[in-house]
Amino acid sequence: MRLLHTSDWHLGRSFHGVGMLDAQQDFIDQLVEVVSMEKVDVVLIAGDVCDRALPGVDVVRLLDDALVRLTDAGAQVVLTSGNHDSAIRLGFASRLLERGGVHLRTRLAELDVPVLFPLDPAEDGPVLAIYGIPWLEPRLVAEHLGVEPASHFEVTRAATAKIRSDMVTRASGRTVHSVVLAHTFASGGISSDSERDLSIGGVGAVPLDLFDGFGYTALGHLHGRQTLSPTVRYSGSPLAYSFSEAKHRKGGWLVEADATGITDVREVQWDAPRALAVLRGTLDHLLTAEEHAWAEAAYCQITLTDSQRPAQAMDKLRARFPDTLVLGFEPEGAAAATTTSYSSRLAAADDDLSICCGFLEHVRGRSTDDAEAAVLGEALEAVRLGEMSR
Protein backbone atom coordinates (compact mmCIF):
# COMPACT_ATOMS: atom_id res chain seq x y z
CA MET A 1 0.00 0.00 0.00
CA ARG A 2 1.03 3.62 -0.46
CA LEU A 3 0.88 6.45 2.05
CA LEU A 4 1.41 10.13 1.30
CA HIS A 5 2.95 12.10 4.18
CA THR A 6 1.86 15.76 4.36
CA SER A 7 1.53 18.28 7.18
CA ASP A 8 1.11 21.96 8.03
CA TRP A 9 -1.51 22.85 5.47
CA HIS A 10 -2.35 25.97 7.53
CA LEU A 11 -5.59 26.51 5.66
CA GLY A 12 -6.68 30.13 6.00
CA ARG A 13 -3.21 31.56 6.51
CA SER A 14 -2.19 34.82 4.87
CA PHE A 15 1.25 35.76 3.56
CA HIS A 16 2.25 39.25 4.71
CA GLY A 17 -1.35 40.37 4.35
CA VAL A 18 -2.06 38.49 1.11
CA GLY A 19 -4.79 35.85 1.33
CA MET A 20 -3.67 32.35 0.32
CA LEU A 21 -6.92 30.43 -0.12
CA ASP A 22 -6.51 30.33 -3.91
CA ALA A 23 -2.94 29.03 -3.56
CA GLN A 24 -4.10 26.46 -1.02
CA GLN A 25 -6.85 25.37 -3.40
CA ASP A 26 -4.16 24.91 -6.06
CA PHE A 27 -2.18 22.70 -3.66
CA ILE A 28 -5.24 20.56 -2.95
CA ASP A 29 -5.80 20.17 -6.71
CA GLN A 30 -2.21 18.89 -7.03
CA LEU A 31 -2.65 16.63 -4.00
CA VAL A 32 -5.76 14.99 -5.42
CA GLU A 33 -4.00 14.51 -8.76
CA VAL A 34 -1.04 12.78 -7.08
CA VAL A 35 -3.39 10.56 -5.06
CA SER A 36 -5.12 9.48 -8.27
CA MET A 37 -1.97 9.02 -10.39
CA GLU A 38 0.07 7.24 -7.70
CA LYS A 39 -2.90 5.22 -6.42
CA VAL A 40 -2.30 6.44 -2.86
CA ASP A 41 -4.18 4.43 -0.24
CA VAL A 42 -3.77 6.75 2.76
CA VAL A 43 -3.07 10.48 3.02
CA LEU A 44 -1.38 11.46 6.28
CA ILE A 45 -1.74 15.01 7.67
CA ALA A 46 0.58 15.53 10.66
CA GLY A 47 -1.05 18.53 12.28
CA ASP A 48 -1.71 22.24 11.67
CA VAL A 49 -4.45 21.44 9.22
CA CYS A 50 -5.90 24.92 9.76
CA ASP A 51 -4.05 28.08 10.72
CA ARG A 52 -6.42 29.10 13.50
CA ALA A 53 -8.25 27.32 16.27
CA LEU A 54 -11.48 28.89 15.03
CA PRO A 55 -11.21 28.81 11.21
CA GLY A 56 -13.43 30.89 8.99
CA VAL A 57 -16.36 29.52 7.03
CA ASP A 58 -14.39 29.59 3.76
CA VAL A 59 -11.58 27.60 5.39
CA VAL A 60 -13.97 24.96 6.73
CA ARG A 61 -15.51 24.72 3.27
CA LEU A 62 -12.07 24.23 1.68
CA LEU A 63 -11.13 21.49 4.16
CA ASP A 64 -14.47 19.75 3.66
CA ASP A 65 -13.98 19.84 -0.11
CA ALA A 66 -10.43 18.48 0.21
CA LEU A 67 -11.50 15.51 2.34
CA VAL A 68 -14.38 14.66 0.02
CA ARG A 69 -12.14 14.79 -3.06
CA LEU A 70 -9.40 12.70 -1.46
CA THR A 71 -11.80 9.97 -0.42
CA ASP A 72 -13.50 10.10 -3.82
CA ALA A 73 -10.05 9.55 -5.37
CA GLY A 74 -9.78 6.29 -3.44
CA ALA A 75 -7.66 7.33 -0.44
CA GLN A 76 -8.41 7.25 3.24
CA VAL A 77 -7.17 10.11 5.41
CA VAL A 78 -5.49 9.96 8.82
CA LEU A 79 -4.87 13.32 10.46
CA THR A 80 -3.89 14.70 13.81
CA SER A 81 -4.00 18.20 15.29
CA GLY A 82 -1.17 20.71 15.62
CA ASN A 83 -0.52 23.70 17.83
CA HIS A 84 -2.49 25.96 15.46
CA ASP A 85 -5.56 23.70 15.47
CA SER A 86 -8.29 23.32 18.03
CA ALA A 87 -8.10 19.62 18.83
CA ILE A 88 -11.72 19.63 20.02
CA ARG A 89 -13.12 21.37 16.94
CA LEU A 90 -10.96 19.45 14.48
CA GLY A 91 -11.94 16.18 16.16
CA PHE A 92 -15.68 16.85 15.94
CA ALA A 93 -17.74 13.95 14.54
CA SER A 94 -14.64 11.71 14.39
CA ARG A 95 -16.63 8.46 14.77
CA LEU A 96 -18.99 9.44 12.01
CA LEU A 97 -16.21 10.61 9.67
CA GLU A 98 -14.36 7.34 10.22
CA ARG A 99 -17.15 5.54 8.38
CA GLY A 100 -16.29 7.62 5.32
CA GLY A 101 -12.57 6.94 5.52
CA VAL A 102 -11.42 10.06 7.44
CA HIS A 103 -9.70 9.07 10.67
CA LEU A 104 -9.11 11.84 13.23
CA ARG A 105 -6.59 11.39 16.02
CA THR A 106 -6.84 14.54 18.14
CA ARG A 107 -7.56 13.20 21.66
CA LEU A 108 -5.23 11.86 24.33
CA ALA A 109 -7.51 8.86 24.81
CA GLU A 110 -6.71 7.80 21.24
CA LEU A 111 -2.91 7.85 21.48
CA ASP A 112 -2.84 4.05 21.57
CA VAL A 113 -5.84 3.51 19.29
CA PRO A 114 -4.39 3.03 15.80
CA VAL A 115 -6.07 2.97 12.44
CA LEU A 116 -5.45 -0.56 11.16
CA PHE A 117 -4.87 -1.49 7.52
CA PRO A 118 -4.33 -5.12 6.48
CA LEU A 119 -1.14 -5.77 4.50
CA ASP A 120 -2.06 -9.36 3.65
CA PRO A 121 -5.42 -10.91 2.74
CA ALA A 122 -5.03 -13.59 5.41
CA GLU A 123 -7.22 -12.99 8.46
CA ASP A 124 -4.25 -13.03 10.86
CA GLY A 125 -1.77 -11.54 8.36
CA PRO A 126 0.46 -8.49 8.91
CA VAL A 127 -1.23 -5.16 9.53
CA LEU A 128 -0.13 -1.55 9.34
CA ALA A 129 -1.05 0.35 12.51
CA ILE A 130 -1.14 4.13 12.10
CA TYR A 131 -1.02 6.07 15.38
CA GLY A 132 -1.53 9.79 15.87
CA ILE A 133 0.19 12.01 18.46
CA PRO A 134 -1.50 15.42 18.41
CA TRP A 135 0.29 18.55 19.59
CA LEU A 136 0.82 17.99 23.31
CA GLU A 137 0.90 21.13 25.46
CA PRO A 138 2.91 19.92 28.48
CA ARG A 139 1.10 22.02 31.08
CA LEU A 140 -2.27 20.69 29.96
CA VAL A 141 -1.52 17.00 29.41
CA ALA A 142 1.28 16.10 31.84
CA GLU A 143 -1.06 15.16 34.68
CA HIS A 144 -3.27 13.09 32.39
CA LEU A 145 -0.22 11.21 31.12
CA GLY A 146 1.15 10.85 34.66
CA VAL A 147 4.49 12.56 34.06
CA GLU A 148 6.58 15.08 35.95
CA PRO A 149 8.03 17.57 35.12
CA ALA A 150 5.72 19.00 32.49
CA SER A 151 8.04 19.14 29.49
CA HIS A 152 7.80 18.28 25.81
CA PHE A 153 10.26 15.46 26.34
CA GLU A 154 8.29 13.84 29.18
CA VAL A 155 4.86 14.04 27.56
CA THR A 156 6.17 12.80 24.21
CA ARG A 157 8.01 9.96 25.90
CA ALA A 158 4.82 8.97 27.70
CA ALA A 159 2.83 9.11 24.45
CA THR A 160 5.30 6.94 22.54
CA ALA A 161 5.42 4.50 25.48
CA LYS A 162 1.65 4.04 25.25
CA ILE A 163 1.99 3.35 21.54
CA ARG A 164 4.76 0.79 22.07
CA SER A 165 2.68 -0.96 24.72
CA ASP A 166 -0.25 -1.23 22.34
CA MET A 167 2.03 -2.55 19.59
CA VAL A 168 3.27 -5.32 21.88
CA THR A 169 -0.30 -6.31 22.73
CA ARG A 170 -1.39 -6.35 19.10
CA ALA A 171 1.71 -8.27 18.00
CA SER A 172 0.54 -11.34 19.87
CA GLY A 173 -0.07 -13.85 17.10
CA ARG A 174 0.41 -11.45 14.17
CA THR A 175 2.95 -9.02 12.71
CA VAL A 176 2.31 -5.32 13.33
CA HIS A 177 4.13 -2.63 11.34
CA SER A 178 3.79 0.91 12.64
CA VAL A 179 3.49 4.46 11.33
CA VAL A 180 3.32 7.33 13.83
CA LEU A 181 2.11 10.86 13.10
CA ALA A 182 3.45 13.47 15.52
CA HIS A 183 3.28 17.25 15.57
CA THR A 184 6.39 18.32 17.44
CA PHE A 185 9.91 19.75 17.16
CA ALA A 186 12.36 16.86 16.99
CA SER A 187 16.10 17.31 17.57
CA GLY A 188 17.95 17.95 14.34
CA GLY A 189 15.09 19.70 12.58
CA ILE A 190 15.79 23.00 10.80
CA SER A 191 13.24 25.69 11.59
CA SER A 192 12.01 28.70 9.61
CA ASP A 193 10.36 32.01 10.51
CA SER A 194 6.76 30.87 10.09
CA GLU A 195 6.59 28.26 12.85
CA ARG A 196 5.33 29.13 16.31
CA ASP A 197 7.79 28.56 19.15
CA LEU A 198 7.16 25.28 20.96
CA SER A 199 9.43 25.93 23.93
CA ILE A 200 6.83 27.56 26.20
CA GLY A 201 6.15 25.30 29.14
CA GLY A 202 9.08 22.93 28.72
CA VAL A 203 11.98 21.76 26.61
CA GLY A 204 11.45 22.82 23.01
CA ALA A 205 12.90 19.89 21.07
CA VAL A 206 12.39 16.20 21.76
CA PRO A 207 15.21 13.69 21.12
CA LEU A 208 15.02 11.63 17.97
CA ASP A 209 15.40 8.31 19.76
CA LEU A 210 11.87 8.65 21.16
CA PHE A 211 10.76 7.43 17.74
CA ASP A 212 13.10 4.42 17.58
CA GLY A 213 11.38 1.19 16.67
CA PHE A 214 8.58 2.67 14.58
CA GLY A 215 8.48 1.75 10.91
CA TYR A 216 7.98 5.36 9.86
CA THR A 217 7.43 8.60 11.80
CA ALA A 218 5.57 11.32 9.89
CA LEU A 219 6.39 14.59 11.61
CA GLY A 220 4.68 17.94 11.37
CA HIS A 221 5.45 21.45 12.65
CA LEU A 222 8.64 22.46 10.79
CA HIS A 223 7.89 23.90 7.37
CA GLY A 224 10.95 22.63 5.50
CA ARG A 225 10.84 19.08 4.15
CA GLN A 226 13.72 17.19 5.73
CA THR A 227 15.01 13.77 6.68
CA LEU A 228 16.14 13.37 10.29
CA SER A 229 16.77 9.63 9.87
CA PRO A 230 15.71 7.05 7.28
CA THR A 231 12.51 6.47 9.29
CA VAL A 232 11.85 9.95 10.72
CA ARG A 233 10.96 12.80 8.37
CA TYR A 234 9.24 16.15 8.12
CA SER A 235 7.11 16.68 5.04
CA GLY A 236 7.12 20.44 5.55
CA SER A 237 4.32 22.79 4.58
CA PRO A 238 2.92 22.56 1.05
CA LEU A 239 3.37 26.30 0.52
CA ALA A 240 5.93 28.84 1.70
CA TYR A 241 4.56 30.85 4.60
CA SER A 242 7.58 33.13 5.16
CA PHE A 243 10.39 34.55 3.04
CA SER A 244 12.83 32.37 4.98
CA GLU A 245 11.31 29.49 2.99
CA ALA A 246 12.12 31.06 -0.39
CA LYS A 247 14.64 28.32 -1.24
CA HIS A 248 12.55 25.41 0.03
CA ARG A 249 11.50 22.69 -2.40
CA LYS A 250 7.96 22.03 -1.25
CA GLY A 251 6.56 18.53 -1.39
CA GLY A 252 5.72 15.44 0.61
CA TRP A 253 6.89 11.85 1.05
CA LEU A 254 5.39 8.85 -0.72
CA VAL A 255 5.80 5.88 1.61
CA GLU A 256 5.54 2.28 0.35
CA ALA A 257 4.55 -0.54 2.70
CA ASP A 258 3.90 -4.25 2.26
CA ALA A 259 3.75 -7.37 4.43
CA THR A 260 7.44 -6.92 5.31
CA GLY A 261 7.00 -3.33 6.54
CA ILE A 262 8.11 0.01 5.09
CA THR A 263 9.96 -0.71 1.86
CA ASP A 264 10.58 2.68 0.22
CA VAL A 265 10.23 6.43 0.71
CA ARG A 266 10.47 8.92 -2.15
CA GLU A 267 9.84 12.60 -2.76
CA VAL A 268 6.73 14.19 -4.17
CA GLN A 269 6.92 17.80 -5.38
CA TRP A 270 4.33 20.60 -5.15
CA ASP A 271 4.51 23.43 -7.68
CA ALA A 272 4.32 26.89 -6.11
CA PRO A 273 1.78 29.25 -7.71
CA ARG A 274 4.06 32.22 -7.06
CA ALA A 275 7.82 32.47 -6.65
CA LEU A 276 9.40 34.27 -3.69
CA ALA A 277 12.19 36.78 -4.26
CA VAL A 278 14.55 38.05 -1.57
CA LEU A 279 16.38 41.02 -3.12
CA ARG A 280 19.02 43.35 -1.80
CA GLY A 281 20.77 46.39 -3.29
CA THR A 282 20.48 50.07 -4.01
CA LEU A 283 17.23 51.41 -5.38
CA ASP A 284 18.72 52.35 -8.76
CA HIS A 285 20.29 48.91 -9.19
CA LEU A 286 17.10 47.08 -8.30
CA LEU A 287 15.04 49.17 -10.70
CA THR A 288 17.36 48.65 -13.67
CA ALA A 289 19.21 45.33 -13.29
CA GLU A 290 18.09 42.71 -15.82
CA GLU A 291 19.11 39.94 -13.42
CA HIS A 292 16.03 40.73 -11.33
CA ALA A 293 13.52 40.54 -14.21
CA TRP A 294 12.25 37.16 -12.97
CA ALA A 295 11.16 38.76 -9.69
CA GLU A 296 8.68 41.07 -11.39
CA ALA A 297 6.04 38.36 -11.08
CA ALA A 298 7.11 37.18 -7.61
CA TYR A 299 6.26 38.11 -4.05
CA CYS A 300 9.23 40.24 -2.99
CA GLN A 301 11.11 41.03 0.18
CA ILE A 302 13.49 43.87 -0.60
CA THR A 303 16.29 45.38 1.47
CA LEU A 304 17.65 48.72 0.26
CA THR A 305 21.31 49.48 0.88
CA ASP A 306 21.42 53.14 -0.21
CA SER A 307 23.40 55.39 2.12
CA GLN A 308 20.32 57.61 2.44
CA ARG A 309 16.76 56.32 2.65
CA PRO A 310 15.28 57.04 -0.82
CA ALA A 311 12.07 59.05 -1.00
CA GLN A 312 8.93 57.12 -2.03
CA ALA A 313 10.96 53.92 -2.19
CA MET A 314 8.01 51.55 -1.95
CA ASP A 315 6.09 53.29 -4.75
CA LYS A 316 9.11 53.19 -7.03
CA LEU A 317 9.84 49.55 -6.29
CA ARG A 318 6.24 48.50 -6.87
CA ALA A 319 6.36 50.12 -10.31
CA ARG A 320 8.70 47.25 -11.27
CA PHE A 321 7.91 44.68 -8.56
CA PRO A 322 4.14 45.08 -7.99
CA ASP A 323 4.03 42.48 -5.21
CA THR A 324 6.69 43.92 -2.95
CA LEU A 325 5.39 42.88 0.47
CA VAL A 326 8.32 43.64 2.78
CA LEU A 327 10.72 46.57 2.55
CA GLY A 328 13.78 46.99 4.77
CA PHE A 329 16.62 49.49 4.89
CA GLU A 330 20.21 48.53 5.75
CA PRO A 331 22.63 51.16 4.39
CA GLU A 332 26.00 49.82 3.35
CA GLY A 333 28.75 50.88 5.70
CA ALA A 334 26.35 51.52 8.56
CA ALA A 335 27.75 51.20 12.03
CA ALA A 336 27.42 47.77 13.59
CA ALA A 337 24.22 47.33 15.51
CA THR A 338 24.61 48.16 19.18
CA THR A 339 23.42 45.83 21.89
CA THR A 340 22.01 48.68 23.97
CA SER A 341 18.52 50.08 23.46
CA TYR A 342 17.86 53.50 21.98
CA SER A 343 16.42 54.72 25.29
CA SER A 344 19.59 53.65 27.12
CA ARG A 345 21.82 55.48 24.63
CA LEU A 346 19.57 58.55 24.92
CA ALA A 347 19.91 58.54 28.71
CA ALA A 348 23.70 58.41 28.36
CA ALA A 349 23.90 61.43 26.01
CA ASP A 350 25.71 64.34 27.68
CA ASP A 351 24.49 67.28 25.52
CA ASP A 352 21.81 68.31 23.07
CA LEU A 353 23.99 67.70 20.03
CA SER A 354 24.63 64.09 21.09
CA ILE A 355 20.89 63.56 21.47
CA CYS A 356 20.18 64.90 17.97
CA CYS A 357 22.99 62.90 16.38
CA GLY A 358 21.86 59.78 18.22
CA PHE A 359 18.32 60.22 16.93
CA LEU A 360 19.52 60.50 13.33
CA GLU A 361 21.67 57.38 13.76
CA HIS A 362 18.71 55.50 15.23
CA VAL A 363 16.26 56.27 12.40
CA ARG A 364 18.77 56.11 9.51
CA GLY A 365 20.97 53.23 10.63
CA ARG A 366 24.25 55.15 10.17
CA SER A 367 26.29 57.65 12.09
CA THR A 368 26.05 61.42 11.55
CA ASP A 369 28.94 62.80 9.47
CA ASP A 370 30.88 65.98 10.32
CA ALA A 371 28.89 68.20 7.95
CA GLU A 372 25.58 67.05 9.37
CA ALA A 373 26.83 67.48 12.93
CA ALA A 374 27.94 71.03 12.09
CA VAL A 375 24.47 71.92 10.72
CA LEU A 376 22.80 70.48 13.79
CA GLY A 377 25.19 72.40 16.02
CA GLU A 378 24.37 75.67 14.23
CA ALA A 379 20.63 74.98 14.56
CA LEU A 380 20.94 74.29 18.28
CA GLU A 381 23.00 77.45 18.77
CA ALA A 382 20.36 79.49 16.92
CA VAL A 383 17.70 78.08 19.24
CA ARG A 384 19.75 78.95 22.30
CA LEU A 385 20.29 82.53 21.07
CA GLY A 386 16.60 82.89 20.32
CA GLU A 387 15.70 81.73 23.82
CA MET A 388 18.21 84.16 25.35
CA SER A 389 16.82 87.13 23.41
CA ARG A 390 13.28 86.66 24.71
CATH superfamily of the largest domain: Metallo-dependent phosphatases
Number of domains: 3
Helix count equals 11
Q: How far is it from the N-terminal to the C-terminal residue, by CA?
A: 91 Å
* Number of E strands: 17
Helix/strand/pairing category: alpha/beta
Principal-axes shape call: elongated
- Main pleated-sheet profile: 6 strands, mixed
Question: Strands, helices and their partners?
Answer:
Layout: E1 2-6, E2 14-15, E3 18-19, H1 21-38, E4 42-46, H2 57-72, E5 76-80, H3 87-90, H4 94-98, E6 102-105, E7 115-118, E8 127-133, H5 138-145, H6 152-170, E9 176-183, E10 216-220, E11 226-229, E12 232-234, E13 251-258, E14 261-269, E15 276-281, H7 283-288, E16 299-304, H8 313-320, E17 324-329, H9 342-348, H10 352-364, H11 370-388
Parallel strand pairs: 1-4, 4-5, 5-6, 8-9, 9-10, 10-12, 15-16, 16-17
Antiparallel strand pairs: 1-13, 2-3, 7-8, 11-12, 13-14
What does this structure look like?
With 390 residues, this protein is of the alpha/beta class. The chain has three domains: 2-269, Purple Acid Phosphatase, chain A, domain 2 (4-Layer Sandwich), CATH 3.60.21.10; 276-329; 342-388, no CATH class. 32% of the residues lie in helices and 23% in strands. The protein contains eleven helices and 17 strands. The chain has a six-stranded mixed sheet with strand order 6-5-4-1-13-14. It has a six-stranded mixed sheet with strand order 7-8-9-10-12-11, covered by helices on one side. Helix 8 links the parallel strand 16 and strand 17 (324-329). Helix 1 packs parallel to helix 2. The protein is elongated and about 100 Å long. Mean pLDDT is 91; it is low at 197-203.
